[in-house]
Amino acid sequence: MPTHYTGDESTRRALDAYIKLSRARKVLGHRTGQLLADFGLTESQFGTLEALYFLGPMSQKDIGEKLLVSGGNMTMVINNLEKRGLVTRQRVQEDRRQFMVSLTDRGRRLVAEIFPAHAQNIVDLMGILSAEEQDHLGRLCKALGRQTREA
Amino acid sequence: MPTHYTGDESTRRALDAYIKLSRARKVLGHRTGQLLADFGLTESQFGTLEALYFLGPMSQKDIGEKLLVSGGNMTMVINNLEKRGLVTRQRVQEDRRQFMVSLTDRGRRLVAEIFPAHAQNIVDLMGILSAEEQDHLGRLCKALGRQTREA
DNA sequence: TATTGTTATACTCTATAACTATA
DNA sequence: TATAGTTATAGAGTATAACAATA
Fold this sequence. Notes:
- The structure is a homodimer.
- The first copy, chain A, is mostly helical.
- Helices cover 70% and strands 8% of the residues of chain A.
- Chain A has helices at residues 9-38, 43-55, 60-67, 71-83, 105-126, 131-150; strands at 58-59, 87-91, 99-103.
């Protein structure tokens, strides 16, 4: 474990932050994932539904970029959601290479059903941190997530 | 996207922190995972090797708890590492239900070969944050990861 | 009875590369 | 030529439950 790495201080510090970040995310994801699993959804699937719910119809490419999921995977995720009647694909007339993905009524109802409990889970999990700490965590993570996509 | 959630402030704040945490971890994991992939290793596999390298031989159960990986998965991860001659299993004489997992010389050499570049990747990625910010991030994430295992 | 680990089941995720259709 | 999406490939992850061996 990097925690026991005895090298120089700046390396130890970065490794330590990284492993704690990873663990936190894993623990939180495990918790939130249980609720989703009760509804037969994976994180990628729910993330897709959530994006469509809050941002409206999008191409597969846009969803993939939002969720950091590769093209081939998006095809599969959308396929699985489509099989269950939660989303639909519609060709974009102006650019027939694209599909616009939209929630069906059933998909919308499912998100509406799950989201409150999902959000409450996250509020509960984050509740160990004060409002200021949550904001600070968000800012630090935002910097990490942004910088590293460009660099 | 929770970012566009228009509910109450505390919910928006928690969701926002959560999504940024998730994105950061995903971006970082993607980056560090590329190096590991060059050596034919997944994160779980390298995490196992790393734990054995820095903490010494451990039972599968202990590794699973460190890495937050379930029992059945640990069997598979260890199997795959064992096939490649990177780890070995030895029955524990005092409790013959357990296997002690150890690095082979080959496994130890592989970690020694990969770790410097892996650590440097993390130092580079975390480098967008100051030393104080990295420490702060670590503390916030530690609280998140710990609390939620107990609660 | 409880625990460690294995096995079986059944999906989902992951990346990549070759491919089709369209731009 | 470049882009959006599909398909094929090939593995690894995930959880669960039933099982064996041991405590």
